[in-house]
Amino acid sequence: MIVGFDWGNAYTKICTPHNVISYPSDIIPYRKIKVSNSLREHDFIFDYRGRKGIAGTLAREERTILDRTRKGDTKLHEDALIRLLIGLHQLPDKHFQIVVGQPINRHSEDKEQIISMAKGVHAITVNGSRKEIIVKDVVVGVEGGSAYLSNPSKHIHLIDIGSGTINFATVKDGRFINSQSTTIAQGLENTEQDYESIAVNIKNIVLDLDWKDSIYVMGGGAHLIPLPYPRFSPIYNNRIYGPELANAIGYYKIGEKLWAK
Questions:
Q1: What is the pTM of this model?
Q2: Which of 37, 70, 89, 186 lies in the 20 to 30 Å Cα band around 11?
Q3: Which CATH number fits domain 2-143: 3.10.580.10, 3.30.420.40, 3.90.79.10, 2.60.120.260?
């Protein structure tokens, strides 16, 4: 199965040939549940290589002030891998070809290690069910830039506002333009949701990058940040799904081009 997987800090988004799903990315250490409730669709209790924890909606509800979601400008860490394996555990297959994302500024630096981390045979137990997952192929897309494929255009600037990072990506004639792209390791959560300050920072970076037009906003913050219109289009939408799903859809489109028969 081909899967586009956006392992975001706030929400995990998964695009398959059949649908797109989204749920909280939270991971916290396992703890005794005082009162047991029935597990919902995106409540996860996992065990991976001896690390036991709680994830998804249940983790978001049960986390305390001491529980912190792993953030930063790279997905090269075990929390990202666990998010991936929990997501693939839910799908009705065991063999996968996947496209995942990495922030722009660390894309080339960490790409091969991310491939090595994700590719191969993994075993994870989720909600008491052990599954062997075989990841046959891995491609690392560019956060923000890959969303271009969910609604392609000749020349486009994309602002991907996430919980841990904000990516600024320029794509022209299907090619990523490095000189007009960057990442800042400050997102919605690590700026304490100071939306006005985030808007000012975005505006200043766009001026520094000398972006003139065709500017679209995507990611979980697309609806939240008060950006100056009409220069910025308020959402980047592929007509069906919202802007927070554009990366996952773009990643899937990459996989489809590479592997679909």
A1: 0.87
A2: 37
A3: 3.30.420.40
